[in-house]
Every structure is written in structure tokens, then in C-alpha cells.
Amino acid sequence: MDKESDSNLWFEEPYTEGLRFHYRVKKYVVARQTRFQYAEIIDLFAFGRTLFLDGKLQSAEIDEHIYHEMLVHPVMLMHPSPRNVLIMGGGEGATLREVLKYPVEKVYMVDIDEELVNMCKKYLPKWHAGSFDDKRSIILFQDARKFVEEYKGEPFDVVISDLTEPVEEGPAIYLFTREFYSTLKSKMSEDGVFVAQAGSAEYLYTEFISALSATLKDVFPQVYGYHDYVFSFQLNWAFLIASLKYTLPERRADMERRFDEIRDKVKYFTPEYFFAKTILPPYMKKSMTEGRVITDKEPYVWKA
Amino acid sequence: MDKESDSNLWFEEPYTEGLRFHYRVKKYVVARQTRFQYAEIIDLFAFGRTLFLDGKLQSAEIDEHIYHEMLVHPVMLMHPSPRNVLIMGGGEGATLREVLKYPVEKVYMVDIDEELVNMCKKYLPKWHAGSFDDKRSIILFQDARKFVEEYKGEPFDVVISDLTEPVEEGPAIYLFTREFYSTLKSKMSEDGVFVAQAGSAEYLYTEFISALSATLKDVFPQVYGYHDYVFSFQLNWAFLIASLKYTLPERRADMERRFDEIRDKVKYFTPEYFFAKTILPPYMKKSMTEGRVITDKEPYVWKA
Amino acid sequence: MDKESDSNLWFEEPYTEGLRFHYRVKKYVVARQTRFQYAEIIDLFAFGRTLFLDGKLQSAEIDEHIYHEMLVHPVMLMHPSPRNVLIMGGGEGATLREVLKYPVEKVYMVDIDEELVNMCKKYLPKWHAGSFDDKRSIILFQDARKFVEEYKGEPFDVVISDLTEPVEEGPAIYLFTREFYSTLKSKMSEDGVFVAQAGSAEYLYTEFISALSATLKDVFPQVYGYHDYVFSFQLNWAFLIASLKYTLPERRADMERRFDEIRDKVKYFTPEYFFAKTILPPYMKKSMTEGRVITDKEPYVWKA
Amino acid sequence: MDKESDSNLWFEEPYTEGLRFHYRVKKYVVARQTRFQYAEIIDLFAFGRTLFLDGKLQSAEIDEHIYHEMLVHPVMLMHPSPRNVLIMGGGEGATLREVLKYPVEKVYMVDIDEELVNMCKKYLPKWHAGSFDDKRSIILFQDARKFVEEYKGEPFDVVISDLTEPVEEGPAIYLFTREFYSTLKSKMSEDGVFVAQAGSAEYLYTEFISALSATLKDVFPQVYGYHDYVFSFQLNWAFLIASLKYTLPERRADMERRFDEIRDKVKYFTPEYFFAKTILPPYMKKSMTEGRVITDKEPYVWKA
User: Fold this and answer.
1) Does domain C3-60 fall into CATH 1.10.260.40?
2) Architecture of the domain spanning D64-287
3) Ranges in chain C, pLDDT < 70
4) What is the DSSP letter of D302?
């Protein structure tokens, strides 16, 4: 019996009522009930070190780079010269790490959960890779909506929404509404670009993408979807870009040129691959045309 | 408590030593130990009716169309006028169903497991949709290698390898070798096209794609990979095309034109989406350049 | 791999929030939502054919004889010549089977769930062993309380309470109260004997035994507890005897003598073993002295 | 959702191929691969702090006292004045704790696994309760067989075999043979008493008790079995006493008298309850008459 089969400790993630994932545990590293969520960091045989929030897998050593590169590089390249960047959420520090690969001046990372960020600092060094200590980083622990509403600094060239889904009574519920996006737009530069992780792109679960793309289209002139499969998520994942000035096609050549400058620093992303991922599966394409606009009055509440 | 949570019957699929999928069972329909494999048909809450072979999920009601459309339509469109088609494996009858959407003259389906095909006929009507009874279908229960070696009929325009992985002592082990593909080539028309389902396209499991693409490249002038995510497989899935005469780019315009004729009969596939899926993730692209050729002397043996 | 490990179908029984039993399934025989409960009959590798009600194991082929012999023989021997017997519950027919080993005249079996009894008749032949067709058996499908209240026939010599636990809104909730036992007493012969299966005798779960013994002591002059371990229950099990006239010690010699007449018909029970089982573990002894009386006004509600 | 349901960390114990126990984990305390076994100490919601060896539950906070009191007190009372005691195994220190409740002069505890004992010292303080530091305790880390063979001290009045089952290639395999028991007898006083934990007393698993009782009967004039149910073992458990001079019945009155002196120090055991537990279930009684003698040449090898 090899080492792997020796362990009979399992972490169980109920995906739906009818489907559960069971991960064999190598080491149960740490757990903490923060003010906002139950955070666990576990070494899994299947995925390496892995972060779970409220029992749901957030990111795993084995392929966090796929998620984070696919989230960050499209918008950082789409904007021709991003200097001032805002990350909402992004507790692990890996989104920040990717942003700092560009010659930006300032990156605000606004995450409501200080305890979580401290856990990540200590236990997920591969994720942040020292980015919290970069002198361009400004780390703030507060509600991102409040931060944006009160922000009076230079306009943001790029805004990245790396938030957990808007679950009932969760901290992210008013961070996906038309009202919030309107305010956000007013704090962006005129050629600003926005991206959001938009949850599962799965066949059966397109409701959130539908609503989120309808909402973004209500506020921004250009909205694009793309998707990629992240093995440890066991799911096709969706992302939405909203742009104030540029279209994606007109930016392609320049994106490829600028990518050459950071090519050696990324493991997975390429512009060619990204553009292929903007060709959506038919059901996802359709879902992006039929949602309802999310508002403060009728926020979107994530159904587990 | 809703209906779904009432049931405490679960089917467990060990994916690796460190990862297990647990599916809640709605109805355990039928199981049979055939001469070649242990076949189970189960109604799952998560995926609807589902076929398992030797405990591994093969195809599920919820998204078998994604797998079967992505397997069949690229090659049926790439060949300009397929009349004589060979399917190796394909027990459920869904590959056959997709092929018959075209005005072919004859489709040979050669599957070694008659008992399995009979189970599928009876319990998977949505899969075959009557295709076994189409007068163009010729269903043969025998070893595909023997069939190909002894075949003296008209050359095949399209050949589809819809086989299970070459597990140790399994029936498919000599259906992925250079020697077999050489024989197969000699039974194909000069503009013939071949496609194989090539197993998981996952980050960690690219060894089979590597070896299979090296082997096909050793026999056929043109080899292409593509991939797509199938939710019920919980995996990105790989496919390999081998072509004797045509390149994919030169065929694109005609493929789009011919697709218009069957567009109403498919649910998921489009040429545009397919071409996007030929842009591979970087690791998969790399894996297609570094494998060893599979031979009768050194066959590829699938590691679970 | 042997036959047993081939199957990956499991039935899961949550025993508490912190403990679950997983049984590998050989064959999922039948399931039915009756008017009163969700009944499943499953062939398990560990226990053979097994009946589950609302997901909880009720009796298993491997050791149902232990439970049923230990329930029935003590009271049937304690009463010197039982002719008229009442069974409340007992849907599988195995309690009836044990009673009919004695030369009784009539056995009333009153079970509220006709659909369940019909399932048991068809799928659990080893349990009833034809006892439903014995001409001494009178099978009635109705509420046992109503039956007892309206009963005007000959007094009962022996009454056996083979009911499921009094779960919230379940049919057994008013079958464990002082008021009911008082009525029952009035329908028993002056030397009548009563026995009830009293649930788990476990260290942590003695509350029901406490309350039930207090209630019986409030109505009957003699009350005795005994217990035995039933492997498939994964639990020490408790039984309570209430007697109108006889004490257990005074009956011992006659019980042993009468047992000789049926010795060949039982597999497990002996009077010597039974008397040893009336010596209770200290915590159970204590629990039988400290409960509160269950009344119609304050019925006992079983906590899962 | 209460605290208990928050945790999705489970420890899985395969009991047989067809039956698994799943314990929800409160805290995974410590694990160590010692020279002899894989030892894990885990806080379970169901049983409190629990020790597992090679994945099998050994003793749990909730009811270790049941096992240890039932193991130790019968022999310590059966011998009229034990002064010199030997414990073989007993790593947790709880057997030692029970022995030290009597006015003995010396207790040798011989356990082969020093690393395990050190873990227990540190993490199972309720088990040993300081007994390792009692000046009457002599703790030796070596093979018990070698110790006994070379022992030249005063004869042992009481010997307690608190060993794990003789699994293949395990350290206990030659500690259950006729040859070893003959040597052991020669190191005991003429009125010496021996007890062994004898594994599961379950219906289906009586082979070890059979063989062990046959072996003891071959060496000692008096052999007795008794059993008790230990909740956290999910099993009826068997014990065997072998006595050189006394019979159990002749000792009963004195045992009850001497028990009065330590009554306040025990939680569960009473002589009355113990004597009831020497009345065996019929199958166990039978199994004690039909085993084969275990020898060095043909040792007993435990089948999981």
C-alpha cells in the first residue's frame, strides 16, 4: 500500500445534492472561522495545497495559475498602459501577483476579510509570492463597495472583480448590481477595462452569467465573455470583460505585442489561447443574451 | 426534505487514489457482467441516465450530445462527401446516430461487446434514437482489428475510433498501434479522415495524447488535436484527427457551408466553436510534440 | 478483485451528525413511499437482505433472529400458557413467526402500514416464513391505539410492542403514553405480560429507556429491563417487560421447563442467556430509575 | 447549521469490504509512522479523542473505561492478593491505570512500540492519568515474548495480554501460541491468573476466540470466556481468562468483598455485571469448544 492509500482522512465537498467530491487529505493545515467565512487550508493528494471557504474549494496549488492568469492577463493587456489598478477581493494574493508582472504604479487590493488575508500570507506563499510586500501594493481591509463610493484618487485603468459568489447575507451581495457598476464606472479612466470572475460556465448553471452580463451591458458599452476549464474546480469557469472604449478585436495585435514582454513570467496564458476562449459554447453564448439586470433592489442571490 | 435528499443510495467512482466522485442514485437500472466488461446503467440525480463501464462513467444523458457531436461532426464535415464510414466501438449507438445525420451510404459499426450493445439498445433509447435499425447501418460484433485486417470492401471515407482506453488485458489494447493504423490507412480512401477520442486532456494526464499523436503522425500526413470540456466527465476531453489529404484550414469554408445543411439536427456543435477548440492549452500543445510511437511490440497500457 | 469489491454502489445511513455507516450494496431490491414511511429493501454484502425505514436499518437477514427471538421468547415463556396474543407493529412478520412457535389460539398483528406489510410478504419470505397464512393469525391494518381502545374480545395474555420509535408526526407517537398503557392493561388478562422494544441501550442514548420504564412502572406492578447486542444495529438494544402478576425470578424454573418444548425451533435464545441479559450495565440500571412519565399531553418525541 | 455539521472532514474506517464507518473529525491531532504501526490520534464528534492504529480504532475517550475496566478488574479480583503484575502491550497506559488501583508492588508494562507510548503519554492524558510515573510502574520497550523468556524475577500473580491482533508480519504474531503460553505459565505464581483481550465476539468472526480458547485450554487448567459491547468498537468484544488454580465460581464471594474496597474508583464494572457477562451467547459458547491449537509452527494470522 503506497503512501497515498495510507491516509483515510477525507474532505467532502457537496457540489449539489446529487454530487459530492471526496478529496483524500495529506495534511489538514489550518482552519479558522473569520468574521466573514469559514476558511480551511488543506493539503490534498489530488491538488496539493488547497483553500476552501465555507466548505467550497477556492483555489488549489495544482492549477491556481490557470485561474489567475486567465483572470488577469486579458484585461491587463487589453488596456494599452495600465498604471492604476483595483482588485476587489483576491484574498490569496495571486491576482495581485499577476498584476504586478506589469509596470503599474499602484495596485489597490480591497478585501473585506483581514483574517483570511493573514492566513493566506502565512500558509499560501506560492500564491502571493511576496506581492503583499511590493511597494506598489496598497492592501485595504474593507467593504469594496464603500471603498469605491468614497474613492477620490486617480481613475482606475483596470478593475478586477475577484469576489466570491453573492451568497445570501454574504459580503459580496451588493458588489454585482447596476448601481454599483455605475459608481465604479465613474471612478475608471475613459479607456478603463473591467473583468469579473463569473462563476461556473456549466451547461446547467448559466443563470448567474446571464444576469451578470445583462447588468454589465446596461452600464458598459462593450461586454465580452470567455471561459476556461479549471481542473480542481471540476468545472468550466466563466469570466466577463466590460470595456469603456476599446473592442477586443481592435486590441488583438497590440495585446500580442505587449504579451511578448511578459511571456517568460506566465505559465499558461497566451493571447491566441485567450481569443479562442472567447468563442463560447452555444448555450453560454445564448445565456449571455437573456438575463435580467441585477439591481440593489433585486440583488442576485446565489443558489448553492 | 426534497425528493433528491431522500435517497441515500450513492454510486462511488474513484477517479484517482486521492479523488472520488459520489453520485446520488435515483434508480439503479441494470447491471451486467459481459464477456468484456462490467456494465451498469444508473439514473443519477446529477446527470440523468448514465452508463458506467468497469465502474467508470462513459456517457450521461445530460451531456452525451456534447461528446458525440464533438467527436463526429468535425470529421464528417472535413471529408467533402463521406459515403462509407467505419465506427470502431461506439456501443451506445450515439456516434452512429450522429453519422446518420449525413447522406451516407453505409456505416459499419464494429463493437466487440454484443451484450453491451443489447443493453444500450434496450436501456439507452435516447442515445441510439433508432439508429441501429437504419437500413444504412451494418452492426458487427467482433474485434475491430480483425475486421479491419480482413476488410475487402469499398474504402472508408471516415473512420471514427470511439473505443475505451487501452487498459491492461482489455480488448482495445492493439487498436492504438502504428501497425494497426498502417493497415487501417490502407483501407481508407485517398482523402480519408480519421478521428479518435483520446482520453483526458487534463493537465496531469497528457501521456496518452502524447503517445497517440506521435503514433498517428508516424502514419498520417496531417494530425490535429482538439479538446472540449464534458461536465459529466469532470474533465477536459481530447480528440485527435488524422487526415490523408486535406488540411483543416483549407477545408474550413466548405465545412461551414455543409454544416448549414444539418444545423437544425445538432444541439451544441458549430464549426466556429470547433475551430476555437483546435487552439490548445499550452501544455496540451506541448504534449503533442513529445510522445513515443505506440507499436504492437510496445503497446500503450492505460494507467488508471 | 473479488465480487464484493466490484460493486461501487453504497447505501449511507447517517447514525448521528458525526457518525455514518456505509453499506456496500449487492442488489437494490425495491423501494416504496408508503402512506407512512419510505421503505427500502436492499441486499447488502455485510448483512444480507435488509429492510430500511426512512433510511434507518430495521432488520437484517444476518441477525434478525437475534432481535426477534430476544423480543418474543421471554414474554411467551413468562406467561405460563399464552393463548391470546397481540402484536403491535411487527410488519416483517418475524415477531409473528416466533409467537406461532407456541400453541397459541389467536395472534392479532396490528400494523398501520399495509403497503409495508405487503412488501415484506413479497420480499422478506425468510422473515415471515409463511406466518401471515397461519390460520391462527389475524392481520389488521390500522392504528394500534384505536384497535386497543375499541377491542372487546378475550383479554390478551401477551402483548408485544414491536413499533418504530415515536418520531415527530410519526404513527407511533401515542403508543408509548401512560394513558395508552392504562387502556391496554384493561384489555389484558390478570396475569398478562407485556414487552416493548425500547430502542438503543447505548451509553449516550438512555433517555427513551428512562422515560419508557418510568411510564410502565406507573401502570404495571413489575417492570424489568434487558438488553442485547444486535450486530447489524451496531448497537446494544434495550427491551422492557411489564408484568401484571408474575415476577421474573418466580417464573424462571417453569420458563426453563417450557423452553425445552420449543428448543429445537430457536437459533439463539436460551433462558440462561436471557436471565444474564437482565443484569444491566450500570448506566442502564441507573437510567431505569430516573425518567419522567410519558403522557398524551407530553408525549415522548424521538430525537434522531 | 451547528458546529458539528460545519466540519466536512471525515475519517473513514473500512470495517470489511462491505461495511465502512465514517467519523466526522473535530480535530486531527497527530499522526506518526512508528517502527511498528501507523498511529493517529483524532478528536471525533462521535467519540471524543480517539486512537487509531493502522487505520483501525483502538480506544475512544467516550468508552475506553468500559474496555479497560472489563479487561483488568476480573483478573485483579480473581487473584486474592496480586502483588506482581505483567501487562503485555497496553500502550495507552489505561490498563496500567486500572491495575494501579490495587495495592500491588510492581507492574511491568512491556510494549514494543516506544514511539506510540510517547504519543499516548503526550496526547492521551485521560488514559494513563499519570500511571506511567507511579513508582510501582516499570515500563519496558521490547518484545514481550523475549521479555518473558528471559524473565528471572518473582513470579507473576496476574498477567494481562492487551495486544493488537496477530496480523501478518505484525509484532504480536508469536504472542498467542502454545509454546509462548507454556513459557509464560512457568513465570507465573502457582495461583496465577491470565486474561487476554480476544478480539471481536461477533457472530461472524469467532474464529480467533475459538483458536485462542483451544490454545489456552491446552496449557491452563481453567479457561473462561466473557464478553461486552463497546460502543465505539461497534462490536461485541471478547475476553478470555486462564487460571492455574482457582475456578471463577469459588472466587465470586471474595471478589465481591474485595471489590467494595475499590468500588469508588471504577465507573462501569461490577462483579455482578461481570458474572452475567460470562454467560455467553450460544454461538460464542459453541465457538469455544471447537478451535485448533495455535503453535509457533502454525501461528494464527488475523484476517482483516
Assistant:
1) no
2) 3-Layer(aba) Sandwich (3.40)
3) 1-6, 203-204, 304
4) B
